[in-house]
């Protein structure tokens, strides 16, 4: 009976993904405003507000004066890479916010 393989540990295999190890937890995201490219490494669950603020601080811009786009859609500060289904190496575009017109 001591050789019984069902000794309480067989459901959890050592090579089974634990804590999301099957998918990379961090993503490398490129942020570009057509003049500058900045690369960020962020977690999939991190709000993009953190990345947006860091980019603006590095470029000397205010977050209210620019807009961030991913695949043509505006990125909101509360969005995360998971909610936008971003992949490693994806790019966020930064454009100057237009004011005025009529």
Automatic annotation (TrEMBL):
* InterPro entries reported for this sequence: Rad60/SUMO-like_dom, Ubiquitin-like_dom, Ubiquitin-like_domsf
Residues covered by region (Disordered): 1-29
Domain of life, per the record?
Eukaryota
Any Pfam family? Rad60-SLD
Annotated ranges, domain Ubiquitin-like: 25-101
Question: What name does UniProt use for this protein?
Answer: Ubiquitin-related domain-containing protein
